Amino acid sequence: MPSSVPTIADLMADCTRSAVHLEMRDHYGVAAEADEFRAWLQTGSVDTDPNSPGWAPWVDAVSSAVARGVVVRRARIVSEPVTDYIRYEHASTIVNVHAGEQVRWLPRRRASDIALPGNDFWLFDDRLIRWGFFSGDGALIGHEISDDPAAAKLCAEAFDAVWAHATPHDQYQIH
């Protein structure tokens, strides 16, 4: 899908302090992952090689940002018991951690008292948002950039609240 919205890697490269990502869906039907997800469903095996062609660009973007002093955090709000897709994500998250991301998981039932934006987002340096829009079946339908201060404040506060309640990746047990 052609887009004039900067890539996450480009935004990460321009970031100076922090990059946070909040994921709130139980399934993503992203076309680029479809074959690997299907293979994981059949075999239980997933690519966790940070040097593989599928991971290397991401690992490079994150590790370069972290080396510059950028704190990169990802939080996932998930329903329990988790979906197969969340199991798949959990199985490959070790690569995110290897790259330098801090990752936490929050069971949806523990998010009830948190004011959340309506869409997944990346927030860079507490000021620039890259919204992610998905269809009902999880297909990526687009992105949008916003520097609206009120929206950035909502995203920062929501992420911080989720982060405070969430469990670090190495301690989160899939249910």
TrEMBL record:
Superkingdom of origin organism: Bacteria
Domain DUF6879 as annotated: residue spans: 8-172
Protein name, per record: DUF6879 domain-containing protein
Origin species: Streptomyces niphimycinicus
